[in-house]
Amino acid sequence: MADIFDAYALADAWDEMFVRPGEVRTAYEPVLAALQPIEPSELRFRADQMARAFTDRGVTYAFAGEERPWPLDLVPRIIDALEWDLIQRGVAQRVRALEAYLSDAYSHCRAFEDGVVPWRLLLNSAHFHRAAQGSSRRAGSASTSPASTSCATRPATSGSWRTTSGCRAAFRTSSRTGAR
After folding, report:
1. Which pLDDT belongs to residue 178?
2. Exposure of 118 by Cβ count < 10 A (0-12 exposed, 13-18 middle, 19+ buried)?
3. Are 4 and 36 in contact (CB under 8 A)?
4. Helices marked H in the chain — which ranges?
């Protein structure tokens, strides 16, 4: 039986699974143990089946006019608690910055008045809603929690629900099968 990692060559970039050739990171030891007995052809078959299931269920995106299955790696990305804390703090910081920018763009416009951001970027944007100028209401919310159980978000300014790509198909599938 061939080990699927026999021909695997580490790139010059950081590798999340291997420290160096033949040395797996501790968090990935169970993943390696599960993958090693699988033949490369079986792994390819499973990846093709997953792509086919995604396409059949509408979990796709359009690229150059072609519907493609949402790319998902069969090998999970392991994120330990320390790494997740760093990611969460970084995402939370960016969410706060974006919310501050939006708040300023729809209220005092200090970043524009001070010349930090050119007025033309705001005023020529198809996404800028002049009718909301002066509003103090938030446009929505974001979560950085890995325990979030829903891919739906409810904007504070309307009663409609929005879903991220692929979730609509997942909801449709789970409602047909009774799955949660």
Report:
1. 46
2. exposed
3. yes
4. 29-35, 40-56, 81-105, 110-113, 119-123, 167-177
